[in-house]
């Protein structure tokens, strides 16, 4: 995926999760997956804003999108 989250950010996520070491392929895999998830969430948030006849995505749109997608 072209628009990947920086690997340093992914490494920090793994460290916070308790991983002692993470290989580069795991970093890239999680970065790609998170980019896909983020894009999906962003698209749904934007749809919700448009449905409300707004051009601006608000926090509430993001939270509602998250709830619709994952509960």
Account of the 3D structure:
It is built from three helices and no strands. It is mainly alpha-helical and 71 residues long. The chain has a single domain (7-70), classed as Histone, subunit A, CATH 1.10.20.
CATH fold call:
Histone, subunit A
Strand proportion: under 5%
Number of separate strands: 0
Q: CATH superfamily, please? A: Histone, subunit A
Shape: elongated
The helix tally amounts to 3
Mean pLDDT: 94
Which structural class matches the secondary elements? mainly alpha
Q: Secondary-structure element order, as H and E?
A: HHH
What's the SSE blueprint?
Layout: H1 7-16, H2 24-51, H3 59-70
Helix pairs in contact: 1-2, 2-3
Task: Write a compact overview of the structure shown.
The protein is mainly alpha-helical and 71 residues long. It is 70% helix and 0% strand.
Describe the structure using short key phrases.
single chain, 71 residues, mainly alpha, Histone, subunit A, 0% strand
